Predict the structure of STAS/SEC14 domain-containing protein.
Amino acid sequence: MITELEDMPAGVVGFEASGTLHAEDYRDVLLPAITAAAEAGDVRFLLVVHDFTGMTPGALWQDLRIGVEHLRAWKRIALVTDIEWMTHLTAMFGWMTPGEVRVFPSERRDEALTWVSP
């Protein structure tokens, strides 16, 4: 499940993800916000993940599609999580992600928001 965070400053789109992610989460929640951000300029993205149990194949496809469709618009991505394997995978493969990517532990969410903001 993905829910949009309402307390984001101008120029930042933020979401919280938990449980299993489905294609509908991307299509109905993420895609409209990211498309609007890309049309307005840079995509500055904050993602907070407390728990994660997986992705459906459709969600994985939508995830790849979103990244590619707005390839040049991605400016910064802040991942806020205490899930160790996500931190390690982001460190290993973050260079493949468009824009700058940084991982922050949950207690540093405010720092992540400051970093990702314009």
Remarks:
- The longest strand covers residues 74-81.
- The radius of gyration is 13 Å.
- The CA atoms of residues 76 and 116 lie 6 Å apart.
